[in-house]
Amino acid sequence: MVNLPPNLSVRNNHLFIGGCDTTELAGTYGTPLYVTDEDRIRDNYQGYVTALSLYYPRTRVLYAAKANGNLSILKILAQEGAGADVFSSGEVHLALLAGMQPGFLLFNGSSKTKEDHRLAVEKGIRVSLDSLDELSQLNQVAKEAGKVVEVSFRVNPALDVPTHPKIATGLATSKFGIPATEILDAYKAALSCEHVTPVGIHCHIGSQILDIEPFAQEARVLMQVVSELHRLGVKFAFVDLGGGLGVAYDHHGSAAPTFSDYAGAVIPVCTDTFSRLGIQPEIWIEPGRSMVCDSTILLTRVNSVKRAHKTFVNVDAGFNTLIRPAMYDSFHEVLVANRAGEAACGTFTVTGPICETGDILAHDRQLPDITAGDLVAVLDTGAYGYAMASQYNGRGRCAEALVRKGEADLMRRAETTQDLMHALVTPSWLK
Ligand code: LLP
Question: Which of 42, 59, 180, 195 has the greatest CB tally within 10 Å of its CB?
Fold first, then answer.
């Protein structure tokens, strides 16, 4: 039997989330439907804050907006006091619209445009620089605006981490960051720029990391760099350790490290160095997945069941709605939401409606007997779920609902056929 997280429960054979019956939610809002439990996000945020501040009071959580950029989710986190790791002008606008303070944002990214830099300068948002080329471009933009912009550089710590190679971001061969061996020269160059002031340092080693040691290793690399930069005269306002803490997608007994495990492994590494240097910068972290992943389920309706060499359950959500299984071979727990109390009686493969063989949400799962019209729930889809959805195969993206203590409302409507057309223009010779 699947171990359900605290925001999910089974009542009268139905799966509930945040006190709401999933079969009613699917009936009201249609499927596919992402359903997010607000309290779970607030709890995760507070879990981080409590764990970090136990070790050091000057900590800040910058939610990685890329994981789930719905405005309502950003608003919830803004209410809690979070900042955000933003990776595009779009994410900057959303975070500000949600009520986040510009000073609590860090504009990350290895390939920013002049417009991105202009926006950061105009709004007073700090920028994490990824190259010397970017440094001179930002300096020029700030000069034109008659302003000085505060920056950090992203360090590439050359760490091999235990995760899917596509989401390891701090390998020596990765496109991100400046090698630790070259970082001093980058800060020297920044110190000589009139319109840029280096006030921080930034790092990210990868995502869905279930070991704590790589985070401690990263902190040790960063602290070595911080010590050298301190000697160079850099005045640190923040040290940003990045995100990356993994979650347990398998609900049959596996566990992920806790926020306390994380804080206990990394914060003392930093505070030891801070005390030695006599500095007190803020420590920032940028969690995405571990903040929102378990807050959300994806509800998808069974269109048909086909008994072939396997039993295929054809549902209405495919990799257009949730790409993670197709892209990273990732595992998501699957339940039959309207038979949630029934015992498994067979092996089923849950497949989407997309015209590709790889459109499989779940392989060979033990589930109760399923028929057309049943409702399947895919768990832990709050991070990189809707955020990576597409309109492939001419399908509008689905709706997102928010639930809170038995109350439900939409936080994004489903796209219509008209939405599929709205950005299309016809070249003159085809009119
Ligand atoms: N900060 C930076 C600079 C990042 O690149 C990322 C994620 C984060 C923070 C948040 O990391 P998290 O706490 O979520 O692990 N689409 C992939 C994950 C890509 C992560 C990319 N960077 C997936 O579905 O597994």
Answer: 59
Tell me the average pLDDT of the chain. Answer: 95
Buried b (16+ CB within 10 A) or exposed e, 279-307: bebebbbbbbbbbbbbbbbbbbbbeeeee
9 C-alpha vs ligand 1 centroid, how far in Å? 29
Ligand 1 shell residues, CB under 6 Å? 64, 67, 85, 108, 167, 169, 204, 207-208, 242-245, 286-290, 324, 328, 383-384
Instruction: Please name which of 257, 277, 176 lies closest in space to residue 213, comparing C-alpha atoms.
Output: 257
**pTM for this one?**
0.96
Residue 163: predicted pLDDT = 82
Positive or negative, the CA dihedral 321, 327, 333, 339 is: positive
Residue nearest to atom 7 of ligand 1 (CA): 207
DSSP string, 277-316: HT--PEEEE--SHHHHGGGEEEEEEEEEEEESSSEEEEES
Q: Determine the length of the chain.
A: 431
Instruction: Summarize pLDDT for 319-363 with one digit per residue, the tens.
Output: 999 999 999 999 999 999 999 999 999 999 999 999 999 999 999
Which residue has 């549902």 as its token pair? Answer: 315
Write down the pLDDT at residue 160: 78
- What is the number of the ligand 1 atom nearest to the C-alpha of 327? 24
